[in-house]
Specification:
alpha/beta, 2 domains, about 400 residues, five-stranded mixed beta sheet, Aspartate Aminotransferase, domain 1, about 40% helix, Aspartate Aminotransferase, domain 2, binds pyridoxal-5'-phosphate, 14 helices, seven-stranded mixed beta sheet
Length: about 400
């Protein structure tokens, strides 16, 4: 099938289609684990002349299985190109270090993934790159933070743990007006729920370790691009000048697991979203729960915006009980859902944001981000929704 026809397919068809492998006619992608590739004189000459993209050289520079993952990711995100990385954090680091230099400034949402926040707030400052943290759901606050040195505007489609949704269209307009590169971490949504490149975002980051892999068994990342403001070969440039130099490639086996995960992404998300919605309704009516945050619930401050810009409200929700002690008791009492790190897999996982992911953030900053001590964050999996609700009901009673 030619690429134009493929681009016109619906999401589920794009995700499962794979052009048969040229060497074996296999309809699923083979794993090529080789770390080194043999040159002949012609290939050697291509390398010398700098036409390196089409040439397999050494595993740290890329690998055929990883390239297959990049191709599938680009198709499902609606991207012109994709660069795979060893993890979601590697994708964020490679993208930002590829975009920025000393003296540059970033405007970033207050509520990003904790390691992202830490990197912007501390690590990038060591290299003379500063960040203003604002609420990106308020475009006027974003405008007020832009300075002549601002190069990047950064936000998450659904922000952890309040599930805040920022309005993409006004952020795209601001990026155009001030010639900024708009970068969006789409991990909590996944491309099955939202494709920010279709709205005019320049670069989308995915922690593929989450919904894309989908089985709690792989770490990987991707940077996807469709941009009028970046050079067409921007991702190739940062593949060579940043990703390869930092040594952050996706391993062939992880690329293969992720290729497998992409094929079921849409159906997993459909079921996970239905379960999240049922669980949100149950929790909102429970007398030990003070608040629920789910973009699909009418009480969510950006409920209408989420419906307008996302295909579905996603599979991430948060609820609050009285305090951190109660949150720990509830999380620890669950028997079907797992109390642990990460999200996006077939098992429902819960986390306590204040004392887990955001532990390194100061209590004052946590409050500014809207993070309460009694919050419990849920990533719904593929368990039967009735069994899952019964698990949460029992845990709340035991608390
Ligand atoms: C929103 C978000 N972005 C990025 C990351 C980092 O991804 P990884 O763990 O694959 O490095 C995470 C990890 O939890 C995340 O939740």
């Amino acid at each position: 099938m030619d690429s134009k026809k493929r681009a016109g397919l619906k999401f589920g068809s794009k995700a499962v289609y794979y052009a048969p492998d040229k060497a074996t006619r296999s309809i699923s992608a083979p794993i090529i684990t080789s770390s080194s590739f043999q040159y002949d004189a012609e290939i050697y000459q291509e390398v010398v002349e700098g036409a390196r993209e089409s040439v397999n050289i050494y595993g740290r520079c890329g690998n055929p299985t990883e390239y297959q993952f990049e191709e599938q990711m680009a198709v499902i995100e609606g991207a012109d190109a994709c660069l795979a990385t060893a993890s979601g954090m590697a994708a964020i680091s490679v993208a930002l270090f590829g975009l920025l230099k000393q003296g540059d400034h970033i405007v970033c949402d207050w509520t990003t993934y904790s390691s992202t926040h830490e990197m912007l707030d501390h690590r990038l400052t060591d290299y003379g790159i500063s960040t203003s943290f604002v609420d990106t759901s308020d475009p006027e606050a974003v405008r007020a933070a832009i300075t002549p040195s601002t190069k990047v505007l950064y936000f998450e489609t659904i922000a952890n743990p309040t599930m805040k949704v920022s309005p993409v269209a006004p952020l795209v307009e601001l990026a155009k007006e001030y010639e900024l590169i708009l970068v969006c971490d789409n991990t909590f949504a996944s491309p099955a729920v939202m494709r920010p490149l279709e709205w005019g975002v320049d670069l989308v980051i995915e922690s593929a370790s989450k919904f894309i892999g989908g089985h709690n068994d792989v770490i990987g990342g991707a940077i996807c691009m469709k941009s009028e403001r970046l050079a067409d070969d921007f991702l190739e440039q940062i593949r060579w000048n940043t990703m390869v130099k930092w040594g952050a490639p996706l391993s062939p086996f992880n690329a293969w697991l992720l290729l497998r995960g992409i094929q079921t992404l849409e159906v997993r998300l459909q079921r996970q979203c239905q379960t999240a919605s049922a669980l949100a309704d149950f929790l909102a009516g429970h007398d030990k729960v003070s608040q629920v945050w789910y973009p699909g619930h009418a009480s969510h401050p950006q409920h209408e915006l989420a419906a307008a810009q996302m295909d579905s409200p996603g599979a991430m929700l948060t609820f609050a009980v009285a305090d951190s002690e109660s949150a720990l008791k509830v999380a620890d009492s669950l028997e079907l859902a797992a109390f642990g790190a990460s999200l996006g897999g077939v098992r429902t996982t819960v986390q306590i944001p204040a004392t887990m992911a955001f532990l390194d953030i100061s209590p004052q900053d946590r409050l500014e981000m809207g993070i309460l001590d009694g919050m419990v964050r849920i990533s719904t999996g593929l368990e039967d929704p009735e069994d899952l609700i019964a698990d949460f009901a029992a845990a709340l009673i035991r608390n």
